[in-house]
Design the sequence.
């Protein structure tokens, strides 16, 4: 009789363990396939208390020494401050009127934009000072990022984009060029 009661208790225990394992499995699968909208915000963007850090990203590029009809200038700025999250774009070229757009963006859009840059190690470069050497007709373009107290900046001329050792920086510049808001 004692063996029968003992085996029923073991059976109940095994049944409970199976249920627990099943729910654990379902939970892990559902979090694995969660939508990108539920993705985590990169820890670099928030303080330990959970507040957003101030941040600024600037990419500035001009055409350099080309015929006047091919001149262009582009600037993209992404910013987080006490007033919110902002995106701005300025573009000029000889084929169309200059455009300047500044708009407020939501925190998910902001986090996605910065996450893309942080995944490419945008903060890993040293903070370069403005090049002293001036070359007539050549413009220095730059990318800079500041998140909290961490910052990075690099300068380049368009020919640098063709260099093999410039690959990581080129990937960051490509991200900035693809932003369409």
Sequence:
């Amino acid at each position: 009789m004692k063996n029968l009661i003992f085996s029923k208790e073991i059976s109940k225990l095994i049944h409970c363990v199976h249920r627990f394992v099943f729910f654990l499995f379902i939970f892990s699968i559902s979090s694995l396939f969660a939508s990108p909208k539920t993705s985590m915000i990169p820890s670099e963007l928030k303080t330990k208390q959970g507040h957003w850090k101030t941040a600024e990203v600037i990419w500035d590029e001009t055409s350099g020494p080309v015929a006047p009809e091919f001149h262009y200038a582009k600037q993209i700025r992404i910013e987080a401050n006490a007033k919110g999250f902002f995106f701005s774009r300025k573009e000029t070229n000889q084929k169309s009127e200059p455009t300047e757009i500044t708009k407020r963006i939501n925190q998910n859009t902001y986090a996605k934009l910065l996450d893309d840059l942080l995944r490419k190690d945008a903060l890993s470069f040293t903070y370069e000072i403005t090049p002293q050497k001036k070359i007539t007709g050549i413009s220095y373009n730059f990318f800079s990022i500041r998140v909290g107290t961490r910052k990075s900046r690099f300068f380049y001329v368009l020919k640098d984009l063709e260099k093999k050792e410039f690959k990581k920086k080129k990937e960051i510049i490509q991200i900035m060029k693809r932003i369409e808001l």
Observations:
- The radius of gyration is 26 Å.
- The first strand starts at residue 55 and ends at 62.
